[in-house]
Design goal:
alpha/beta, eight-stranded mixed beta sheet, 10 helices
């Protein structure tokens, strides 16, 4: 059964509710939503903070890493006291302090395997039960697995990436748009990490925050979601650019 906003919640989210594009229906869509965030690094912590504060009812956080001191410049949900602890547990504690109404489930295991058959049933269920999945990982193997499962389970996916001074975003909605594999067919990128190439801290927070915004707009059924579009951000030129995927992409997964 769908939940309704309490009077206290309606007052708390009033600045959202007065927006005609949101209204009570949009805020209650957030309240009843379950969003799965895979990867609780720079992207994931920015996205989780915004989603939790904005009134999303349930979050599932997936990451097997522990907090390191080198994470702190960009993973702003963590503090020095969290170094050495589980990222998902530290994130849950901070997010609960931000919004105790948000139901947070954590899974401290890696989202990686040679194929989906070797992923744990719990990981598959997390995507199956999600209304939107946020891919905040930093490697192509995980991205491919997440996209495959989202496509098979008919779950909308918001993918984000950031490296050096550059960020990118892509939204895939099964049945309505092309999938992330279509993008990968066109733009094969080297599996380069932030450790090797570096990352300008504000960029990863900009992209993660944008992922949260896109997820919220998908849940509220906004009519101008950037489908079939790679969005890129360049922090040196301060430019956002949209790249439409061409027709006739040879994607074995979604055949679009």
């Amino acid at each position: 059964m769908s939940k309704s906003l309490t009077h206290q919640q309606a007052m708390r989210y009033n600045r959202h509710i007065v927006l005609p594009k949101v209204d009570l229906d949009g805020q209650e869509a957030l309240l009843n939503a379950n969003i799965c965030i895979i990867g609780i690094g720079g992207l994931g912590t920015a996205a989780a903070t915004n989603l939790c504060a904005s009134g999303v009812g349930s979050l599932t956080l997936i990451d097997h890493d522990t907090v390191e001191a080198t994470n702190l410049p960009r993973q702003t949900l963590f503090s020095e006291q969290d170094v050495g602890t589980s990222k998902v547990e530290a994130a849950k504690a901070r997010l609960t302090a931000i919004n105790s109404d948000c139901d947070i489930t954590v899974m401290a295991e890696p989202f990686s395997a040679p194929d989906t058959s070797q992923l744990s049933p719990e990981l598959k269920q997390a995507i199956e039960h999600a209304d939107v999945v946020l891919d905040c990982t930093d490697n192509t193997n995980s991205r491919d697995l997440i996209n495959l499962l989202c496509f098979k389970l008919n779950t909308p996916l918001v993918s984000g990436a950031a490296i050096r001074f550059e960020g990118q975003l892509f939204v895939a909605i099964p049945g309505e748009s092309r999938c992330y594999a279509c993008l990968r067919t066109l733009f094969e990128s080297p599996d380069l990490s932030c450790v090797e190439a570096g990352i300008f801290s504000p960029v990863v927070n900009i992209v993660g925050t944008y992922q949260a915004m896109l997820a919220m707009q998908v849940l509220m059924d906004f009519d101008n979601i950037p489908k079939n579009t790679l969005m890129t951000f360049d922090a040196l030129s301060h430019e956002w650019r949209n790249w439409k995927l061409p027709r006739g992409v040879d994607c074995e997964l979604c055949a679009r």
